[in-house]
Amino acid sequence: MRKIMLATTAAVLLAMAASASAQEKVFRYSTTGDILGLDPHNNNEGPTNTMKSNIFGRLIHRTGDLSLEPDLATEWTAKSDTVWEFKLRPDVTFHNGNPFTADDVVYSFKRQTQEASDMAFALSSVKDVRKVDDLTIEIETDGPDPTLLLNMPNFYIVDQEFMEENDAFEVVKGAGFQNFANTHPNGTGPYKLVEWVQDNRVVVEPFEQHWDYANRESNIDRAVFTPIGNDATRVAAILSGEIDLMYPVPLQDIARLEADPNVDVLQGPELRTIFLGFDQWRDELMDMPGSGKNPFKDQKVREAFAHAIDTKAIQRVVMRGASTPTGLMIAPGINGFPEEMNIPYEYDPEKSKQLLEEAGYADGFPVTLDCPNDRYVNDEAICTAIVPMLERIGIKVNLNAQTKSLHFNKIGAAENNNTSFYMLGWTPGSYDAYNVLQNIMTMDGEGHGAWNSGRYSNPDVERLTDEIAVTIDEDERNDLIRQAFKIHYDEVGHLPLHQQALAWGVRNDTVESVVQRPFNDVDLREVVMK
What we know:
Layout: E1 2-5, E2 26-30, H1 46-55, E3 60-62, E4 68-70, E5 73-78, E6 83-88, H2 102-112, E7 126-133, E8 136-141, H3 148-151, H4 160-165, H5 180-183, E9 191-197, E10 201-206, E11 222-225, H6 231-240, E12 245-246, H7 254-258, E13 263-278, H8 299-308, H9 311-318, E14 323-325, H10 349-358, E15 366-372, H11 379-391, E16 396-402, H12 404-411, E17 421-426, H13 433-439, H14 459-470, H15 474-491, E18 495-507, E19 511-516, E20 527-529
Helix pairs in contact: 8-10, 14-15
């Protein structure tokens, strides 16, 4: 975490919406794409989860420095290796005025763990959530779970009465859908929804009946989130004062923003790993109809791709130095990170050609690369740079770059992993290595493989992941993590590229302070206006 106290200058009140008073403190901010929905139990995606976290309460909240603090639970105690008791906060209400009780926690558990939920991973080890009384629950796990508390910030609590009245128990899989749960969020969080105009704006206001309203750090009266996909437009908006904060800052515009006395550029490391994935489950590659072949099932082909991509060139040219090439699926700072194994695959196109020839694809083959164009730093530019690298070894690449909602639907469960070769980025929601093993690197088990779009699976990795899930001893657990990552690395189960750097632009004439979090999102609790 970096808490930035911005330079004090004369406060400048910019034009507000016609309905806003001259004294209203409106925080306006932007990133590259819209949220995917407001159903708290769906669409496990960074900006979407952050907006959900402003609106919905969790038992435990994760602060900007990654530490855990009480939210809807005031205290928790391990009663045994598999049972935890949570005391719930009294006198809490949902935004519609309904009281919060243990019944809502039990209902939320049932809803979040249904098969369609993107957020089921957070509770995959949980066998049962039981009501003891109105303000006490017990959580029982299938076995010892060293990451249970780390996952609690991903367990969102909804109002049972409200959801049942509106027949909204079912989670509708997919991004951007306008079903009831996505458009009518009713949480206990510090902010309540005013409106969501898809692809235009999300407006929230403080919930004055929030249990901690009197002690809140933020002083904003309204927050307006505006997705701006075009980099130049987003930069123009921060320079003109139309918005108070933007992220990410296009790498080529950092110096330009730094030259403006009214704008500060905040930079730091991010815990997200950007990687490529391969279809390893279809018998026939979608780009090779009638061939009866799927080259990506051959480890030599995946190795050829790994040695064909020059991650240092991407770092130098596309990312302008603002990335760290990696050989692992997690970043430094994630629990279990095996630093000694973090060796990117060597760039060697001649070796790639040899491997393709040995695999029987000396003349290459065609493939579509699915890529978002508004989610990660320079995502489309990275994919564009990869195309000629692969063409150099004979691979005929068709680049399909599109907005993140369409991209995630295509490669995800909503369209049955309709992809052969794709880009994805991942920050483990628990900040523990098990999370990426569970979501990205395995398929077998409750909550596994949610974003394993190429369906990579190795029985030894599956077994090791199951052991990691219940191993408490840190040294023993880290050794199991190293073993699993070594198998995955040797097989090129996925192809990690880099961790991107954070770059935010903040107006120092309107914003007093903001916390730049290592997971690259804006918690409105931590924004103070001048």
